[in-house]
Specification:
The complex is a heterodimer of chains A (114) and B (114). Chain A is mainly beta. Chain A has no helices and 11 strands. Helices cover 0% and strands 48% of the residues of chain B. In chain B, the strands form 3 sheets. In chain B, strands 2, 5, 6, 10, 11 and 12 form a 6-stranded mixed sheet that branches. Classes of the chains: A mainly beta (114), B mainly beta (114).
């Protein structure tokens, strides 16, 4: 089990710039989730994929956010025209596709908007 | 929509003290319950889970949790904490409206003094 890998670990950018994060799930996991976590809060669901299909999106995911999972392997989360409020830890998790399997989390990407 | 409440936001204990962290959820139907732990500088990892059967579930590192359906609760317990239990603890629930996306509580920060 090599674990869920996220890159970069930290990203600092100016407001208005675009950023992209990458997540490599555990290889046999066909479900992949993105969460956002701010200080003092638990993870908030953003979106999830089963294989390459994006099956659910939270209303937190504004039109500036887009996520992809080409070929059902790694995933990218892009934020366009970043705003101060986008500063957060972005977490990726993966799980097996059977019902209610626990999720395995990555270390996250911390985004800071200047 | 499902909501999860963790009433203790910060808990400070001495080693060997007993621990109980509260978790209450809102949805009254079939639920699946999880406790995750995040040690300093590490990613979220599963501590224990309840799907069905015996409402008293045992997890790693001597932790246990009891599902009380009538109280909508899933409290986490440990009879004797150690300094190494210092971490953030998150309760999560799936269920409600057919969604299997977990809803997380805001977390409890536990500090154990040696």
């Amino acid at each position: 089990d090599t674990g869920v890998s996220q890159n970069p670990r930290h990203k600092i950018t100016k407001r208005g710039q675009n950023v992209t994060f990458r997540c490599d799930p555990i290889s046999e996991h066909n479900r992949l989730y993105w969460y956002r976590q701010t200080l003092g809060q638990g993870p908030e669901f953003l979106t999830y994929f089963q294989n390459e299909a994006q099956l659910e999106k939270s209303r937190l995911l504004s039109d500036r956010f887009s996520a992809e999972r080409p070929k059902g392997s790694f995933s990218t989360l892009e934020i366009q025209r970043t705003e101060q409020g986008d500063s957060a830890m972005y977490l990726c998790a993966s799980s097996l596709g059977t019902r209610n399997q626990p999720q395995h989390f990555g270390d996250g990407t911390r985004l800071s908007i200047l | 929509a499902q909501s999860v409440s963790q009433h203790n936001h910060h808990v400070i204990l001495s080693e060997a003290a007993s621990l109980e962290l509260g978790c209450n959820y809102s949805y009254g139907g079939t639920v699946n319950l999880f406790w995750y732990v995040q040690y300093p500088g590490q990613h979220l990892q599963l501590l224990l889970k309840y799907f069905s059967g015996d409402p008293l579930v045992k997890g790693i590192k001597g932790f246990e949790a009891e599902f009380i359906k009538s109280k909508f609760s899933f409290n986490l317990r440990k009879p004797s904490v150690q300094w190494s239990d210092t971490a953030e603890y998150f309760c999560a629930v799936t269920g409600g409206g057919g969604s299997y996306i977990p809803t997380f509580g805001r977390g409890t920060s536990l500090i154990v003094h040696p």
